[in-house]
């Protein structure tokens, strides 16, 4: 098992270094993911739950199976049927299988029902409470029920509030605890992309903006990456690509070329300067007169006759001798008009100025 874990971590490290579908965005990228990341094999639903509990969840959590929304945990002993043991005869302190994408909205049969990339252990009463609500943010004052570990309360918690999941029956949304929001978001984007032919569009569209923010604020960690590769062993060695490449959510569903900075990063605010340098300050192509891409003559043509010659030198010398405060003769832009400007002007005329 140790060698298996090292192998998974090594492979996941390699995959996290690469951008998936380079150069593709929007529909072309979605098509690419459907063609390359759709599994043709899942376990039967009964088998996949047992594998999920024993080989994925208990393996990652030192023998414990933890509910996705509450962190409520049950230690899974050896030699028992995982699903039966965890279900605990349907007790509210039991655990069953939550479909992050609801069965009634597209995950009710076949591959979508038993694809472990969107299945999670869940405390039974909280699974029922979530129902088929979309995920979203719930105002604390409007939350109907709060859930954490074995606690179910109608009162706003006095402590550990970020550990609670919330059910809002007014706006009909379910808000999971903070530290799994990104994980859930990436599972939803996965399901909608891979099983788009059966997934309910309205269910996805009403929550996708919130899920995108969760994805950004709670990026995939090593545990989530390990988990998707553990699951992949049972599903054609195909991981959830939205975990492997963090750019996919934006590139599939939010890509807008006008949002990109010159560095290719959405909303970075970086622009090319006049020298063509991304995020530059024009310093790489500025001329002696301080003009980007200039020809070093703008500040030297003191009499504005479109020619830089000895008459400009004469004018400059007169400005110096009369101690004129006119900035016209400040050829080197040091805020002083003096002999150094004469030297630079002569060098410009002779063609020696850089």
Description of the structure:
Helix 3 packs antiparallel against helix 10, helix 7 crosses helix 9 and helix 13 runs antiparallel to helix 14. Helix content is 38%, strand content 8%. The strands form 3 sheets. It has a 4-stranded antiparallel sheet, with helices on one face. The protein contains 14 helices and 8 strands. The chain folds into 3 domains: 254 residues, no CATH class; 27 residues, no CATH class; 67 residues, Type 1 dockerin domain, CATH 1.10.1330.10. It is an alpha+beta fold. It is elongated and about 105 Å long.
Q: Between the first and last Cα atoms, what is the distance in angstroms?
A: 66 Å
Q: Report the strand count.
A: 8
Looking at how many chains there are and whether they match, the oligomeric state comes to single chain
**With helices defined by DSSP (H or I, 4 residues minimum), what is the helix count?**
14
Shape verdict: elongated
Order of strands across the biggest sheet?
6-5-7-8
DSSP helix fraction: 25-40%
Rg of Cα set? 32 Å
Mean pLDDT: 89
Beta-strand residue fraction: 5-15%
Could you spell the SSE succession in H and E letters?
Answer: HHHEEHEHEHEEEEHHHHHHHH
> Structural class, judged by helices and strands?
alpha+beta
Contiguous uncertain segments of 5+ residues? 1-17
Largest sheet: 4 strands, antiparallel
Number of domains: 3
Structure at a glance:
The protein has 14 helices and eight strands. By secondary structure, it is of the alpha+beta class. It has three domains: 2-255, no CATH class; 259-285, no CATH class; 288-354, Type 1 dockerin domain.
């Amino acid at each position: 098992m140790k060698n298996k874990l090292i192998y998974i971590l090594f492979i996941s490290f390699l995959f996290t270094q690469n951008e998936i579908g380079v150069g593709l965005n929007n529909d072309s990228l979605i098509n690419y993911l459907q063609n390359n990341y759709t599994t043709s094999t899942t376990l039967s639903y009964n088998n996949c739950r047992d594998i999920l509990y024993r080989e994925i969840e208990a393996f990652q959590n030192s023998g414990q199976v933890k509910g996705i929304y509450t962190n409520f945990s049950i230690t899974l002993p050896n030699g028992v049927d995982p699903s039966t043991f965890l279900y605990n005869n349907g007790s509210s302190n039991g655990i069953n299988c939550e479909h992050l994408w609801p069965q009634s909205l597209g995950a009710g049969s076949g591959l979508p029902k038993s694809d472990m990339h969107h299945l999670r252990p869940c405390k039974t009463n909280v699974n029922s409470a979530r129902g088929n609500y979309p995920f979203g943010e719930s105002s604390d004052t409007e939350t109907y029920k709060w859930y954490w570990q074995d606690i179910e309360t109608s009162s706003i918690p006095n402590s550990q509030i970020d550990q609670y999941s919330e059910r809002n029956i007014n706006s009909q949304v379910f808000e999971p605890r903070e530290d799994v929001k990104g994980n859930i978001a990436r599972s939803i984007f996965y399901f909608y992309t891979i099983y788009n032919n059966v997934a309910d569009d309205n269910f996805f569209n009403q929550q996708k903006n919130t899920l995108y923010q969760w994805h950004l604020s709670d990026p995939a960690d090593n545990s989530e990456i390990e988990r998707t590769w553990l699951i992949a062993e049972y599903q054609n060695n195909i991981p959830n690509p939205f975990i492997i490449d963090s750019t996919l959510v934006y590139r599939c569903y939010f890509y807008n070329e006008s949002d990109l900075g010159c560095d290719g990063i959405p909303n970075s605010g970086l622009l090319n300067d006049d020298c063509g340098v991304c995020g530059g300050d024009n310093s790489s192509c500025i001329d002696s007169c301080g003009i980007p891409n200039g020809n070093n003559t703008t500040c030297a043509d003191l009499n504005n006759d479109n020619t830089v010659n000895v008459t400009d030198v004469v004018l400059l010398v007169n400005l110096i001798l009369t101690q004129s405060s006119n900035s016209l003769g400040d050829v080197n832009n040091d805020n002083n008009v003096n002999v150094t400007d004469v030297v630079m002007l002569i060098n410009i005329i002779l063609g020696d100025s850089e």
